[in-house]
Each structure stands twice: as C-alpha cells, then as structure tokens.
Amino acid sequence: MQFAITWDYLCPFARNANEAVVVGLKDGRDWDVTFQAFSLSQVHTEKDETPVWDREELPSGVLALAWGVAVRDEFPESFLDAHTALFAARHEDGLDLNDEVVLRDAVASVGLDPDRVAAVVASGVPLKTIAREHTDGVERHAVFGVPTFIADDEAVFVRLMGRWDVDAVQRVLDQLPWTALNEFKRTRIPR
Fold it and tell me: In this model, does residue 191 exceed pLDDT 80?
C-alpha cells in the first residue's frame, strides 16, 4: 500500500499515528510511506500575514519540522528513529521544540551528528520543502490538520487515541476508499 501521512511535532494525535506507522514499517508492513510535513502554525496564520516558513523568527513547531525534514531528506536511514525522538521530546519530555538544543539532543540520541543536521537546516532547503509540501497538501487534498492519511486522491484526517496501534493505521488505510463515510466522530471519548 502506498500512502502519505502528514505530521507536525506539536500534535499528540500526529504522534500517535506517525509512531504507529513507524512501528508498522519496522515490523515489516508492506507500506510505501511518504511522510509529509504540514505546519499547524501556518494553518493559524491570517491570509495577509507572512507565511511561517518565510519569517525571520519561526513560530512554534516550524523549526522542529525543519529538523525532521532535514533528517528525512538527507539522512533517511535515521529518519524513523529521529522522527520518534522529536515527537518524544515534545510529548514525553515536555520540551520546547523552538529550542535548538532540544532538537540537537533529539537527533543525537539516535546517532546523528547534530552539526550536520543543523547545517542542512541552515541552508534553508527544509523550510522551502515544508512550504511546498504544506501548500501541496492544502491545494491538492484540502488538508487542514495532522495527521492526514493520503492515498491516490483520497485524504482523511484522523485522531487515533492509542499509541503504537499498527492495526488502527491499517484500519484507516482500508477505509480510505470508502467515500460514503465523510465524518465519524464520537460525542464522548471512551476511557
């Protein structure tokens, strides 16, 4: 199965889904996955404001996205582990993703040289990639949040409640072609 999944390190639901995809890939699922950057900060930007990737001072989450994109594109063999570590920095450790020391520590924890990743980020290429991927998601698939699963022309925003639930991801993927269901939202969260 070929699909894309959007992410922003700020979102706990993106963490749940992305971690489950990572676990599925490591367990040998036959998935061809594209991890697509999407900025929640950009979603909350007014039309007349400068896009988040063009600002001198990056708003919340954008720097972490740039580090994730840098690893994905330049150090792909380490991406799955770095991706998980960047989510953990935010959601397990409660650290500030706008602090470069936090990002350096996250990538170093998976064996990457943080100076090499920082050099890629400093090139500006990851921010251009985020702009392109975010804009493509919005224009082609009406993406508005993370995580969104995209396969062919179908895109579905989901909120998986559990972590590492590979079967839940497979269930989402199996339902993507079923276009008769537009929205399915619980009125209460079962605990």
Answer: no
Q: In whole angstroms, what is the distance from residue 179 CA to residue 191 CA? A: 29
User: pLDDT (tens digit, 9 = 90+) per residue, 10-19?
Assistant: 999 999 999 9
**HEC string for the chain:** CEEEEEECCCCHHHHHHHHHHHHHHHCCCCCEEEEEECCHHHHCCCCCCCCHHHCCCCCCCHHHHHHHHHHHHHCHHHHHHHHHHHHHHHHCCCCCCCCHHHHHHHHHCCCCCHHHHHHHHHCCHHHHHHHHHHHHHHHHHCCCCCCEEEECCEEEECCCCCCCCHHHHHHHHHHCCCCCCCCCCCCCCCC
